[in-house]
Amino acid sequence: MTVIERFLKYVTFDTQSDESTGVTPSTEKQMVFAKYLKAELEDLGLKDISLDENGYLFATLPSNVDRPIPVIGFIAHMDTSPDMSGENVKPRIVGKYDGSDIVLCEEENIVLSPKNFPELLDHVGEDLIVADGHTLLGADDKAGIAEIVGAVAYLMEHPEISHGDIRIGFNPDEEIGLGAHKFDVEKFGAKWAYTMDGGEVGELEFENFNAASAVVHVKGLNVHPGYAKNKMINSLLVANEFVSMLPEKEIPAATEGYEGFFHLVGMDGEVEHTTLNYIIRDHDRQKFEARKALMSECADKLNGKYGSGTVTVVLKDQYYNMRQQVEPLMHIIDLAFAAMQEAGVEPKVKAIRGGTDGAQLSFKGLPCPNLFAGGLNFHGRYEFVPVQSIEKAMKVIVKIAELTARRY
């Protein structure tokens, strides 16, 4: 089975995660896919295969050399985003893309167009895998899974390529921020690993946002509006004051690169009580801490104006920038960089404007930079992945395994 055949099979499994369930995996359908993958890894002949009750699937491709080589790992997540349906995905391949519009669904006029997605033009002449416009595709991160399984199968078919022990890990619930929470780093047993969860070909990432959530509770005082002078405190208006106190240009729609932001993701309220839900992001740890402090300062000012307890802010750190964990071990970045070059891929070192399981795993003692999986327009109906990008990612995995044996 080719790597593309694997991918086309994998996306037919509906594996959406669900942050509301409070269990791991958050949806039983992820476990259905995990059991399928476990059987596939058994058929391949991998060793030390385990699938725990939380949906974490580990396996080993044993070393084919008689000297000690560092154990390395490759990791991908099984779930797809809750943002769009992953049920009944119907993938198809658009051969030798010519730069024109791709009609995903003619009846509903759902069109993937370079006018809206100019990155399509970077892949003219390639074979693009798309869905039918009613679901996401699932390249995030089933492309990563296919690339890892495909690379392991290739190494087994080519014993002339020397490699050490290679651990592979597939986990649930990355899309709801819980993929690494129950990942047993000690059991996984790798010296370092790579998540195959990036986008465009060549992406090599070892920096990500520091991340926190903030829930702002605003307490109001409701009285009859006809007799409200000097009495009523309208929590909705106070909440709007809070929003206006934050820098108006430091929002996702106005930032890029290393610029951080405050992102208002939800607002719900009435006169008596309003809740604001924020996420806070910044690559720089000091700026990140300053952003959290600013949220608290805004609350203090409004409490001084309207009375103590009017505004409370509940802050919760979510993950941190993996750079501080990976930077002392830059040889693992150099290794990936060299592997890409040998595989004919131009490395593109960039900072992630988001987070990955690798960030949390790095802080759990498993340094884990992120490599490209090849997909684009994740989490929506316009997601696509070039066949050639999946094949290149698989080659990079093979090269990393080969170079690790060559250098150590």
Whole-number radius of gyration? Answer: 24 Å
The pLDDT mean sits at: 96
Distance between the termini: 32 Å
Residues in β-strands, percent: 15-25%
Task: Give the low-pLDDT segments.
Answer: none
Give the overall shape: globular
- Main sheet record: 8 strands, mixed
Number of DSSP strands? 17
Percent in helix: 25-40%
Number of helices: 10
Taking strands numbered 1, 2, ... along the chain, how are they ordered across the largest sheet? 1-2-8-3-9-16-10-15
- Helix and strand string, N-terminal first? HHEEEEEEEHEHEEEHEEHEHHEHEEH
Which class of secondary structure composition applies to the elements? alpha+beta
What features would you describe in this structure?
The chain is an alpha+beta fold and 408 residues long. The chain is built from 10 helices and 17 strands. A hairpin with a 4-residue loop joins strand 5 and strand 6. The model has no long low-confidence stretch (mean pLDDT 96).
Give the SSE layout.
Blueprint (H helix, E strand, L loop, with lengths): L2 H8 L17 H17 L2 E5 L5 E5 L10 E6 L14 E3 L7 E4 L4 E3 L15 E3 L8 H19 L8 E6 L13 H4 L3 E7 L4 E5 L2 E10 L15 H11 L15 E9 L3 E10 L2 H22 L4 E9 L3 H4 L4 H12 L5 E4 L5 H7 L6 E3 L11 E3 H21 L1
Parallel strand pairs: 3-8, 3-9, 9-16, 10-15
Antiparallel strand pairs: 1-2, 2-8, 4-7, 5-6, 7-17, 10-16, 11-13, 11-14, 12-13
Helix pairs in contact: 1-3, 3-10, 8-10
